[in-house]
Amino acid sequence: MKLSRGLYLHIPFCSIKCFYCDFTAFSGQKKTISRYLAALDQEASFFPEFNPETLYIGGGTPSELSAEELKTLFKIIHARFPLANFKEATFEANPESLDADKIKILKESGINRLSLGLQTLDDHLLKLIGRQHSSKDFFDVFSNVKEAGGFSVSVDLMYGLPGQNLETHLQTLKRVLDLSPDHISLYGLQVEDWTLFSKREVKIDENLAREMFERSIEMLKEAGFIHYEISNFARRGAESLHNKIYWGNGEYLGLGCGAASHLNGVRSTNEDRLIPYCVKVESGQISASSSEKLKGVERLGEMAFLGLRMIKGYVPPEESLRVFDAQWNSLISRGLIERRGDVFRLTKEGVFVANQVFMEFVPPFDGIELRSPSEALL
Ligand SMILES: C[S@@+](CC[C@H](N)C(=O)[O-])C[C@H]1O[C@@H](n2cnc3c(N)ncnc32)[C@H](O)[C@@H]1O
Ligand code: SF4
Predict the structure, then answer these.
(1) Is the separation of the CB atoms in 299 and 358 below 8 Å?
(2) Are residues 67 and 194 in the same domain?
(3) Does a structural domain hold residue 181?
(4) What is the DSSP code (8-state) at residue 374?
(5) Does residue 275 lie in a domain region?
(6) Same domain flag for 202 and 72
(7) Fewer CB in a 10 Å sphere around the end CB: N or C, the chain?
(8) Does residue 323 share a domain with residue 221?
(9) Residue of the CA atom closest to atom 4 of ligand 2
């Protein structure tokens, strides 16, 4: 199913900040939640015409909201988007804060997909990366979710973590697969600026990380999962429809602090400081702090690196083949991209060095003037 309009709501509250995370997420700010929800409501009122097909409530940690706060959140969504017919409605949750009460509210409110943040089942490692839950919390939540029924369940895992070895990682993956989730997101650690990991100068063992990724792909495929996006694996029919809108260059409205939107060809990002976001919305301003309409070569480049994220590949328009002729040829000759008819896709090697491939399509482009005459055609 290919959909084209998604709604994203960002809930930027976490119990504490994990040591690797640079997402827009704040700890110790629970007192701001009701003000924040009112701001979300007001921001949603700026877009009365938007008629989304998917919903994604992400964070931060949406399950940090209390049962009452969750009810308020869903009242807002249903009142502001009365015509929405969500084919998929995802809610991100952490094991330490999703109880049976909240699961019931989510189900009654139309959530049909849960994304559970686990990272690893190694309890010692969970502490070392700043997580607030144990492996037992995860198993308890998973069984509560299964007992409630009605959710497609995804689990987030990480590899390449300091102190993680191949055996413990593969053991985690095997134990998670034994639970038969519908979807797994598997992220290689990125050491981001301003995180505790960056301050501690954590170094990734790239060879080990690659082995973890390679072996995980094999194990997931053997278990019947389809590797459909660089970091995402699903049982047939359980791919994330919302995220496929992002990768397919579709339209999405992002509400909340730091949320990103892509509407009418314009990409924008909201103010990412919590109180300034609330103040901006309360004063009647749309909260975008940056926006740009990508044109010409930049737009073609963006379409290429988003499309190539999909493992089945991407059909570049003629203009892309012409403008990026040197890039496509060089990637093919380096064995990072393969061409089958009109479809260009990452090779097995290309998947492991995808960021390197994508850099070819991000300005400044080798040998291409940014404002080339080809823009006139677009
Ligand atoms: C931003 S979190 C939001 C959901 C939820 N709070 C959680 O912790 O799972 C989504 C996922 O991003 C991944 N992630 C966050 N920071 C990362 C990093 N620096 N490197 C790789 N993956 C990361 C983790 O797997 C995490 O589960
Ligand atoms: S990984 Fe999730 S729980 Fe941890 S700080 Fe980031 S958003 Fe919060």
Answers:
(1) no
(2) yes
(3) yes
(4) G
(5) no
(6) yes
(7) N
(8) no
(9) 18
Most informative mutation of 13, 16, 20, 21 for ligand 2 (most atoms within 8 A of CB):
21
Last residue of a domain, one of 214, 229, 245: 245
Sign of the torsion angle spanned by Cα atoms 201, 202, 207, 213? negative
Clarify whether residues 320 and 176 are in a common domain: no
Cα–Cα distance for residue pair 181/76, rounded to 1 Å:
30
Rg of the chain on CA atoms, in Å = 21
> What pLDDT is stored for residue 2 in this prediction?
79
Burial (0-12, 13-18, 19+ Cβ within 10 Å), 85 = exposed
Give the Å distance between the CA of 30 and the centre of ligand 2.
15
If you ran DSSP here, which 8-state letter would residue 26 be given? B
CA–CA distance, 171 with 160 (Å, rounded to integer): 14
Q: Is the pLDDT of residue 372 over 50?
A: no
Half-sphere exposure of 318 (CA within 13 A, CB side): 3
Ligand 2 centroid to Cα of residue 260, in Å, is 18
Q: Is residue 279 part of a domain?
A: no
Domain that residue 365 falls in: 296-377
Ligand 1: nearest atom to the Cα of 92? 4
**Any idea how long the chain is?**
378
Measured in angstroms, how far is the CA atom of residue 128 from the centroid of ligand 1?
15
Residue 127, in any domain of the structure: yes
Over residues 14-56, the pLDDT tens digits come to 999 999 999 999 999 999 999 999 999 999 999 999 999 999 9
pTM of this prediction? Answer: 0.95
